[in-house]
Structures
1.
Amino acid sequence: MREALFYGAGFPYKLIDDLQGKLIVLEGTDGVGRSSQIQLLRNWLEDQGYAVSDTGLRRSPLTQPGLDAAKQGHTLSPLTMSLFYATDFADRLENQIIPALKAGFIVLSDRYFFSIMARDIVRGADPQWTRKVYGFALKPDLILYLKASIPTLVSRIVHGRGFNYWEAGMDIRCAENLYDSFIVYQSRLIEQFDLMAQEYGFTTIDANRSVKPVFNDLRLQIIEHFKKG
Amino acid sequence: MLKSGNYSGKLIVVEGIDGSGKSTQIDLLTKWLRAQGRSVYFSEWNSSELVKSTTRLAKKEKIFTPTTFSLLQATDFADRLQNFMLPMLKAGVIVLADRYAFTAFARDVARGVDREWVRNLYAFAFQPDLVFYFRVPLDVAVDRIMAGRAKLKYYEAGMDLGLSGSRVTSFRLFQQRIINEYESMIDEYGFTVIDGTNSVEKTQKGIRQYVKKALQGWKGLPSPIRPARPSDYQIVTPVSDQDQGE
């Protein structure tokens, strides 16, 4: 259906063409409701007769065990974490996403490298450096950015899985306690996402609303995109 | 050149293909410096505990691609540089590294990743005070490697590149590509070229001269341990070339 377009050099050692499927990415900070939307989109697309594959950060069989173990320890510096996540992302891209696209699947990606970049930059990574690292990344067909305000995120976290160390950015101690740190950390992430929204052509969806209207919007965007071919 | 680091120590690196003799030489150099009462720290390519289990898994299952191989080794290197080598350098220690970022520049490009991409990936690395590049003809290196072990390992032989069904042939083709990359980096990163075909003793003598010169007038962190007996730093039979590179 289309040739593979990359943000940089891609994978020069491998010819990647004839991607029959579509890569649809859902981006957004922690607690915007990405996973429930992915589930709904998956069911809807499968009802339409599409073959769907989903993927998310830290799910590569290569790096998942090592990365999980590393996150328990204290030696994972921002730089090593950044590179470890890049390894995970590359593994899923080359070994899961691209093969699925070749086979004509619609790949729903629960976040893409944009989330990793946002986290890295908030932790002090050079924005240009990290953009170049992801020069191997395939350009998605559609990037849907779920954007919610801090009060919405707090409410979802409180009524959902609760505050946790990583989502509150406690590794860089934005504040003394989980709540305050969460507020500062997530605000900084949103800042980065907003910058990227323009640069990478995100379609921004208001995620302050309940599940149903957000889902309807996402569905509409996907239908529009399919119409374009 | 890489960026310069803000530390008072000295960073000395050996580079070269498998079987070029660099590990033997850096081992002798480490012992010699220690024997002089210098504070020395040694670090080896691909030895971080952080990614060890991941590397082992990937090699066993043969699921590395050139990009993931490159990224994981960069993770390993970043961990060693930030958490081990840099604190030592800041303390005024002589850090000796068996392979450095240049190994990635040579090997990952030989595997097919983009030259500029991998250089950006290692932008956090510092330019060493000395980089010894062990130049050796391919045949010499292959003979040394084959004499030392029963079988070449899959990634070591570059089997993932599909250059040849034979491990030895594949190894030769892969190493030749790596040599080409190293040769093109000599001026780019100011390598000191060492003739890897000379005797161990002669080569070590030359290396010590370069190191002496680099350390002239430099104090560094004093070692609390008294210098060892002279017998500790006499050149004895070289250790076998145990390369942890792949």
2.
Amino acid sequence: MTITAVEVADSRPVLLRREKAERWVGIALLVGLVAWLVWNFFASPTQWINVALDGLRIGAIYALVALGYTLVYGIIELINFAHGDLFMLGSVFCSIILVNWLGATSGSAKDWIDLLLTLVLVMAICATMNVTAEAVAYRRLRRAPKLAPLITAVGVSFIFQWFGLLLNGSTQKNWPTVIPQGGISFGEVTLDYSTIVVFLVTIPLLLLLSWIVQRTRQGKAMRATAQDQDAARLMGINVNRTISFTFALGGAMAGAAGVLFLETFGTTRYDAGFQLGLIAFTAAVLGGIGNLQGAVLGGVLIGLIQGFNDGLPYGLGQKWSQTVVFTILILLMVFKPEGILGKPTIEKV
Amino acid sequence: MSLRAPEVVSSPTKKSDLVANHNRRWASGFVIAAVLVWVFYTFLLPHLGSGVNTTVRQWMPLNSINEALVWVICAVGLNIVVGYAGLLDLGFVAFWAIGGYTAGWLMSTFIQAVNPGFYFLSSAIPNQPGIHLNWWLVLVAAGCLCAMAGIVIGAPTLRLKSDYLALVTLGFGEIIPQIFLNAETFTNGAKGIAPLDNVAPLPFGPASVAVGGQTIKISAPLGPFDVSAKYVLFVIVAAFCVFVSLRIREGRLGRAWLAIREDELAASMMGVPLMRTKLAAYAVGAFMGGLGGVVYAVHNNSVFPDRFNFAISIILLAMVVLGGMGNVWGVMIGALAVAWFNSTGLPQFGDSFNTQFGTNINFPSYNFLIFGSILVLMMLFRREGLFPETRTRQVLQEAERSDDEELDGGEA
């Protein structure tokens, strides 16, 4: 039997009623969101722009953390619960090295060099910790039932939290920052110095990461391992080393995010990592987990949503921000688990 | 290949008899232990002299046993979701919180709009505003509310992959306590709801019996400090949960859960309705979480939102993992041990250690390290828990693919 062109055109996938309903609910939610944003913009444009800039700043930090989730998930399909706590440890390490050891508390030229040095050091430390956690805890469970590595990751997260508690104490600590307060004003719109620094650090890091993954030999090995570990191994790729390298990259990004977080907000708390990590994970899912560009996009979007909710005149206010983000996480998981840029996956049997 | 019938067929009844016997032995052990503890604390302890008395009160006060029973109730509930059905739930604290707030709403003067108060078989102080129900009814109400919440959470999420499911439950576990914290009109925000009504075991008038110089209240309202009477009530609730999870496991539903846990695809091929069965696991687990919430509220005589944090979900998970996923008795022992260790054992050990050696180490701050290490080490070395079921052990210690290991070996 031959199929005519007309028949092919007619054989579009038939949507189930539920899928249709889901699609319409999704569109309605998006339209509502846009209407809310437009309304707020006309209510107070300058505030809107200021809030958007704040959102972009935190969004860039989330993007760095989200990259760690997405890298690890992409290669071994593990949700690394401990990643948020690694980010928290990054900020704690930064506070100790930068303020306690190097004594950089103002904005002098030496302090800026110290900040750069600290950034590199903290990235190295976090990368090492992530690699160690992988080697000690996750590697042996790679072939185990899925529940086992997940529970292990939760355990590692608790161990990291304990380490943070040990270093930072049980209360929130405030630190002086190298980046001065305030910013460049354009009329009523202020571009904070911290926003500029965050972008100056984040954008090169993202470019570097994408260069490593797309252009280098090691990146090719990573992509091959992500596709099929056994085949990669047969092609002579050292899978264990490749996975370690991926964890190192993720850890370094978390360390950088920790440094930027401390320099932006000037506070450290031992249990901050859990919730911020979950928000960053939401960002990774929003963009499509396993997809690097998606993680960045998701991070920026989540940052914007959080910023808008915190600061807009008709927002729910800061105390509901996390609830909003987690609600987005749940809605996404339910309606569009593959995210914006991800491809729908069929679970392997 | 011979076509003989497999020999297993001949022994199903025998095997279930064995299981029943095994459980019966445990059950009588549970009852005897519970009665012994009660007799010890109510009758013997006051006569044992001050030395023993102080030691016992320091190291194992009845209050800490009561709290441990709350954990047992919730851990047994979580065991149904994680241990039986194999769905990782990282937000069990949500049900605990819902249960607690149900108790807060239905057993206190908090709902001022109901004035004069609504009393139903309650032993609360009369002529107050608010809803005052008998606590058994509150248990049922909280359980049902949580079961519904479990279904509402589960229905859209259960078709997700297992790791996504863990994340969604985690999100719920974060959202629900935040709602309780932020929606101040309904929950009184961070100030919480306190005090709760006095609990009476039975809805009838007060009656007490004098046995051996001790007055035992049979149905008098229990104040916040009637620890030993509360102990009896909590033991009954815990026993109910254990009983339900044991019986349900032997039935059709329980076997379906185990089948799903072991191989979802195979189970669905055998005609197990996946969604409905998973939802049932969620609902039953959540029901017990709700009971635990009410019991916790009664134990503390108050409900505060900051008590419901992520750590609770993880500690419950540690209890289930430590005791042996799927084995109710193991989970119970794990819960008792971990809860006691957390609430009394570790601080007390820290105090003794510090006075002995003149150090100043904050031992309770190490519980993150200890619980994290428990989870990691158990997963690495004894995935089936301390008291494993044979069946669980077989699943979790499944032989890994040997080809890959050879390849790994060649590489290293």
